[in-house]
Specification:
The chain is built from 16 helices and 28 strands. By secondary structure, the protein is α+β, with helices and mostly antiparallel strands. The chain folds into 4 domains: 201 residues, Immunoglobulin-like (Sandwich); 106 residues, Neutral Protease, domain 2 (Orthogonal Bundle); 153 residues, Orthogonal Bundle (Neutral Protease, domain 2), CATH 1.10.390.10; 79 residues, Pdz3 Domain (Roll). The strands form 7 sheets. The chain has a 7-stranded mixed beta sheet with strand order 5-4-8-2-1-12-14. The chain is globular and about 85 Å long.
Length: 606
């Protein structure tokens, strides 16, 4: 069946004339127009043109949370003005009924909402701080527009189609996965699809490649003009090709990487304390301070975000779509969405020959080292369910460590049980064939689906290591591949260590996630807020640079540290320690035939 929806755009300001409405029984039409041409006031000027509302649609919602962030965002906090008008330019009564909701009286006569909303980058907030890749930013050289941070939906119309028009400087370039129509409007089949489509607008460079049948573009803004989209593509192309080999098919026909690299001065001016990327079905948005160079971590991050095409953007539970933007609702399967995706980002590089087995094992060692500093008595499903709580937020980063190692062990177990015929990759591809973008699996049935799709023994694995908090069997499982485990030894790296692991609190401050016994004796405590190191103020944007200075010092040297504890500052003199390597895996050398066979299978896509 072919269905044609005809949109009539009605722009309204007080006192102006109006186009005639469509027939009363026609579909409700919602069109957004956003003015970005005046960046000096730091506001998004939004016009929402509507036709055919009923009083059942009288509440306008901005998101409290959005997919992939696992955080309370409350974008309604940033609205500065909010007005509603009928077709004759008369103002309708509006009541702000909650942080993110506005109730419009006489909604049947509403034709236009006008509101101004502040960008999040330099907003004066101290709670539920929004990460830059999840927020919005307006600058003289660029605009970061996560659509969900500016545009909302009417109650009951989340699944209706919408249109969007952006007014911006004529010399700017637009980076987005949305397709621009001949009428100058972007179209989305639902609000969920609109919210899943970020924009980067400004003085951008562009580069492209082909991955399987996927057209992949990089759009990049950088304060350092020597950093270009072409350089990013050159650095990442081989890992994207490896991702294509791992997937084995094309879940989408196009994908955009959007990069915003701000100067450190702009980062500090905008009060940004974190960096990273947020995935979307056809794109991902990266926001980082500019360093003028790229590391393997950036390539790993691109692989991770690209592999999100599989989970959760195709394989996901019915909690995710349609998404509940109003009430944060946790899924117990974040281990699948984040942990498995992180495993994919590294194993695909091993199987493509981009990294050696030694490099891959070193990555597992690093993940286990980080895992040591998190709560070992909380399961992955509990971590998932508690993701919106303060405790859950503190544990979230461990999905990329313990979650990834759990996926690695599950892969080995599946390969063993199937006699080398079917690992975690193949199981995921089978599930993707059964479910997909528009067919979610039932949230509470996935574990049954997983072990019924595989082997009865996988139920034990799930109960022990995903639902349960038993220590992961990496010693036993890695031995099956012919790798020996060494718990700890003196490192060949003679650079000293401070003996501290950092985390982030809900104010985006650096905190002590864990500290060595020696450092605790010197006065550092868990959850201390780190204020100064070596006499310099320290935050997310300069931590790597400041802590990097310690690498040129010697074991036994003293380091002045200032922390905040219970609202009071404390001065501490810490001593640099000898570096120790932990969780080491080494090739056993002489392997059994079973070890040889399993390792050979493990190192390739089946």
């Amino acid at each position: 069946m072919k269905k044609i929806l005809i949109f009539i755009v009605v722009y309204c300001v007080p006192g102006s004339g109006y186009l005639q409405a469509t027939e009363p029984d026609s579909p409700v039409e919602v069109t957004f127009e956003v003015n970005l041409s005046n960046y000096t006031d730091d506001l998004f000027h939004v016009s929402v043109i509507v036709n055919g509302l009923t009083n059942e649609n009288n509440i306008y919602n901005l998101p409290a949370t959005v997919p992939g962030t696992y955080a309370i965002l409350d974008f309604g906090r940033f609205v500065k003005t909010f007005r509603a008008y009928d077709r004759d330019g008369n103002e309708l009564s509006v009541k702000h009924i909650s942080t993110n909701q506005w109730k419009i009286d006489d909604a049947e006569n509403l034709v236009n909402l006008l509101y101004d909303i502040e960008d999040t980058y330099d907003a004066d907030i101290s709670e539920n701080v929004i990460d830059p890749m999840s927020g919005t930013g307006i600058d003289s050289a660029f605009v970061v527009l996560n659509t969900f941070g500016v545009l909302g939906y009417f109650e009951g119309l989340q699944s209706n189609p919408v249109k969007l028009k952006l007014d911006y400087r004529s010399d700017w370039t637009v980076g987005t996965a949305m397709q621009l129509g001949d009428d100058g409007y972007y179209f989305a089949a639902t609000y969920d699809r609109l919210a899943d489509s970020p924009f980067l607008i400004g003085n951008l460079t562009n580069a492209n490649t082909k991955v399987n049948d996927i057209d992949v573009d990089v759009y990049l803004y950088s304060s350092d003009t020597s950093v270009t989209a072409g350089k990013v593509m050159k650095m990442a192309d081989e890992v994207l090709q490896a991702a294509g080999e791992f997937m084995g098919y094309s879940p989408t026909d196009h994908y955009d990487f959007l990069f915003c690299f701000m100067s450190r001065e702009d980062y500090q001016r905008n009060n940004l304390q974190s960096a990273g990327a947020l995935e979307h079905f056809n794109s991902s948005l990266f926001v980082f301070p500019s360093t003028g160079r790229f590391s393997n971590h950036m390539r790993d991050d691109m692989a991770h975000e690209f592999m999100h095409i599989l989970t959760p953007l195709n394989l996901h539970s019915n909690i995710i779509e349609p998404y509940n933007f109003e009430v944060p609702t946790a899924s117990e399967h974040i281990w699948l969405y984040e942990g498995v995706t992180e495993w994919e980002a590294h194993i695909l590089q091993l199987r493509a020959g981009l990294i050696t087995p030694k490099e891959y094992l070193k990555n597992i060692s690093q993940e286990l080292n980080v895992n040591d500093h998190f709560d070992q008595e909380i399961s992955l499903t509990e971590m998932s369910k508690e993701v919106y709580s303060d405790e859950g937020r503190q544990q979230f980063f461990n999905f990329y460590n313990r979650g990834a190692v759990t996926a690695a062990m599950l892969d080995i177990r599946l390969l063993e049980l199937s006699n080398g015929k079917r690992g975690l990759r193949e199981v995921l591809l089978d599930l993707l064939n059964k479910y997909g973008k528009n067919k979610p699996f039932p949230e509470d049935e996935f574990f049954n689906i997983l072990f019924n799709t595989t082997y009865p023994e996988i139920e034990d694995f799930i109960d022990d290591y995903i639902k349960g908090d038993k220590p992961l069997p990496y010693v036993e499982y890695m031995e099956k591949l012919g790798y020996r485990y060494i718990p700890e030894r003196v490192s060949e790296d003679n650079r000293p260590v401070l003996g501290i692991n950092l985390g982030i609190n809900d104010k985006n401050q650096l905190i002590v996630a864990d500290a060595s016994d020696g450092l605790q004796k010197e006065g550092i405590m868990k959850n201390d807020v780190l204020l100064k190191v070596l006499g310099e103020d320290i935050n997310m944007t300069n931590a790597r640079q400041i802590l990097g200075q310690l690498m040129s010092m010697q074991v036994g040297d003293s380091v002045a540290i200032v922390v905040e504890r219970d609202g009071k500052q404390t001065n501490i003199i810490a001593t640099l320690k000898q570096r120790m390597d932990k969780h080491i895996f080494e090739d056993m050398g002489k392997l059994t035939e079973d070890q040889k066979s399993l390792r050979e299978t493990w190192m390739k896509n089946l």
